Amino acid sequence: MTRPTQGLLMAFLGAVLIRLSLTDAYLRYVTTWMKWPILVSGVLLIGLAVGLVVSERSHDEEHDDGDDGHGHGGIPLVTWLLVLPGLVTFVISPPQLGSYLAERRSGEAQAVAEPAVLSDLGSGDVVPVEVTEFIWRAQDGGETLEDQPVQLTGFVSYDKDGDWFVTRMTIGCCAADALGYQVRVDAGEDVERPQRDQWVTVTGTYASGTGTGADLRNPPAIAATAVDLTNAPTQTYE
């Protein structure tokens, strides 16, 4: 592969990384702390690309007869596969992980570690609570959720029995290790079930006795008093 071609590929991949980091699109794939490493990597790739082009020009000026005795081989076709991830990112812009993955992992154990920061409950006012914290409190016995109005925000997923859930995905470092967490929504018959992947804010109280015990595959439930459609947040993962 010629140096200009190498530089072109590096510059393209560098531009993809810079675009991802500057538009928050990177949050679809990795956690928030990865922004600066991605940005720096993109800048370095473009810098290397410029260096390759400059060095090639200097080399050509020294050998202006066009034959340096070494020649340049053809470009392996497999090299162009490096372009595909960038094209997918620019043209298709894959969405965040959603109901497709969550529903296929439905029924798996939802073991949740105690959150580092807990919401301040007990005031009687409606308190926004993360889905994973709600599940952890239910698994811990549910006493801290009793009669406490809360708001859960997430996207909608279904199960084969017709129930629907407010759902969030979590990632450790990237989307490859994503896990889905669900809270069943018990709403009245007058509340129409939202479409899959629609983001909602559900207001209600913990359905006593759900999501507790040793069976971590049994999700807790929220007795909904209101279901409001909303837009997806910038960071969709908890």
Features:
alpha/beta; 5 helices; 2 domains; OB fold (Dihydrolipoamide Acetyltransferase, E2P); five-stranded mixed barrel; 18% strand; 6 strands; elongated; 238 residues
Would you mind describing this structure in some detail?
By secondary structure, the chain is an alpha/beta fold. It has 2 domains: 3-92, no CATH class; 99-230, OB fold (Dihydrolipoamide Acetyltransferase, E2P), CATH 2.40.50. The chain has 5 helices and 6 strands. It has a 5-stranded mixed β-barrel. A hairpin with a 5-residue loop joins β2 and β3 (164-170). The model is unreliable at 66-73 (pLDDT under 50).
Q: What is the chain-wise order of helices and strands?
A: HHHHEHEEEEE
Global outline? elongated
- At the first level of CATH, the class of the largest domain is Mainly Beta
Unreliable stretches (pLDDT < 50, length at least 5) are: 66-73
- Tally of alpha and pi helices: 5
Q: In percent, how much strand structure appears in the residues?
A: 15-25%
Strand order of the largest sheet: 2-3-4-6-5
CATH architectural name of the largest domain: Beta Barrel
**What's the CATH topology label of the largest domain?**
OB fold (Dihydrolipoamide Acetyltransferase, E2P)
- Give the fraction of residues assigned to helices: 25-40%
Note the gap between the termini.
43 Å
Total strands: 6
What is the total domain count? 2
Structural class: alpha/beta
Q: What can be said about the biggest beta sheet?
A: 5 strands, mixed, barrel
Average of per-residue pLDDT values: 83
